[in-house]
Specification:
This protein is of the alpha/beta class and 415 residues long. The protein has 2 domains: 308 residues, L-arginine/glycine Amidinotransferase, Chain A (5-stranded Propeller), CATH 3.75.10; 85 residues, Arginine deiminase (Pentein). The chain contains 13 helices and 19 strands. α2 packs across α9. The model has no long low-confidence stretch (mean pLDDT 94). The structure holds citrulline. Belongs to the arginine deiminase family. It comes from Massilicoli timonensis. It catalyses: L-arginine + H2O = L-citrulline + NH4(+).
Length: 415
């Protein structure tokens, strides 16, 4: 079996990457919410219970669940020399500038013997008070003290439980993303180390995009329609330039099968931050859609330029969304199911709480937030198997079941 294998949004899910929300959520404060991309402070205990219920639904349905923190701890355990390199990179990317503070933080982190505890600490963030005893003997550094907006010498990474975004599985490879925001860009360091050094992934995973590229792209915008067509959102989080760049990389890669990208230009807003907040596939011929994107949506086809491998051909599709999808999926007809049936207020409310953000674990079988009862009732009426998970606290981070999961292996779909 290949380490990564994802050629659709709906093939039976065999293996998925999650992150159980941890103490990083305790380090959210009203003043940091906006910068750290949260709308409220979740109650950690309940968020963890909800997340465990999500993992249980997946396991009960035959999915192997692996956790980011475990893969990263295994990566360090398998490569004893890597701890130093990782810690130095983590410290640099946390924005710690002076040699003096770098050394203090390095020693503080390196004092964790247990690799998993160390990784969880890097995720949680480091408050300057935790270093107090070590700081007592040195002068404070003006540079680090004035450049810090909070008491954190390393900010927490509260968005880590949205494992969908730092990288995206595509066929047997990944897009290792450069993220839109400073706070989320730090998250991709874990995927970088896992793909480069974890015994199961090292040398097994092609990279079609790299976190050091100049343009930003996030996994919530990347949808595998089939083994040769991707849909990618042009959104608040993903730039058109990044899509052209990944298109050229995919089209010229000897092992990648992708020959067409459909770029979906969606409105740039907080509510619609990624394509998967407004549009997910739930069966071979069915998608959930937020009605709010239907008017402004533009779809572009991107293919290789046969005359120039440094360029791509871009064509706007002037057709109804359902016709475009049916054509590229090679099926007679596609049904779009509107969030909350299209009722304006209910659709806006439920989309805000990720009513369109479903995780499909087999054709016609989806995991959803139970709070979106109008949309869920409609999906059941349409014949879908709807597996509901609790969501009072997790939803405060503005992401749903698709955002909280990164498929590593799916079975092929018989079209
Ligand atoms: N794919 C997704 O839509 N992920 C949700 C990300 C939510 C997170 N608070 C963010 O703003 O990035």
């Amino acid at each position: 079996m290949t380490a990564i294998h994802v050629t659709s949004e709906i093939g039976k899910l065999k293996k998925v990457l999650l992150h159980r929300p941890g103490r990083e959520l305790l380090n959210l404060t009203p003043d940091t919410l906006e910068r750290l991309l949260f709308d409220d402070i979740p109650f950690l205990k309940v968020a963890q219970e909800e997340h465990d219920a999500f993992a249980k639904i997946l396991r009960d349905n035959g999915v192997e669940v692996v956790y980011l923190e475990d893969l990263m701890a295994e990566t360090l355990a398998a490569n004893p020399g890597l701890r130093e390199q990782f810690l130095k990179q983590f410290i640099d990317e946390a924005g710690i500038k002076t040699e003096k503070y770098k050394k203090i933080v390095y020693d503080f982190l390196n004092s964790y013997d247990d690799n998993k505890e160390l990784i969880l600490k890097t995720m949680e963030g480091i408050n300057v008070n935790e270093l107090d005893s070590k700081l007592r003997n040195i002068e404070n550094s003006l540079v680090d003290l004035v450049s810090d907006e909070s008491n954190f010498i390393a900010d927490p990474m509260p968005n880590l439980y949205f494992t969908r975004d730092p990288f995206g599985s595509i066929g047997n490879g990944v897009s290792l993303n450069r993220m839109y925001s400073v706070t989320r860009n730090r998250e991709t360091i874990y995927a970088e180390y896992i793909f480069d050094h974890h015994p199961e992934y090292k040398g097994q995973v092609d990279k079609y995009f790299d976190r050091y590229n100049p343009f930003h792209i996030e996994g919530g915008d990347i949808l595998n329609l089939n083994d040769h067509v991707l849909a990618i959102g042009i959104s608040q989080r993903t730039q058109a330039d990044a899509i052209e760049m990944i298109a050229k990389n995919l089209f010229s890669h000897k092992d990648a099968k992708i020959d067409t990208i459909l770029a979906f230009n969606i409105p740039n807003s907080r509510a619609f931050m990624h394509l998967d907040t407004v549009f997910t596939q739930i069966d071979k011929d069915k998608f959930t859609v937020h009605p709010g994107i239907m008017g402004p949506l533009q779809v572009f086809e991107i293919t290789a330029d046969p005359d120039n491998s440094n360029e791509v051909l871009v064509k706007e599709m002037n057709d109804k969304l359902e016709n475009i999808l049916a054509r590229y999926l090679g099926i007679p007809k596609v049904e779009l199911i509107m969030c909350a049936g299209g009722d304006k207020i209910a659709a806006e409310r439920e989309q805000w709480n990720d009513g369109s953000n479903t995780l499909c674990i087999a054709p016609g079988v989806i995991v959803v937030y139970e709070r979106n009862d109008v949309t869920n009732a409609l999906l059941k009426e349409k014949g879908l198997t709807v597996l509901e998970m609790p969501s009072a606290e997790l939803s405060r981070g503005r992401g749903g079941p698709r955002c909280m999961s990164m498929p590593l292996v799916r079975e092929e779909v018989e079209w």
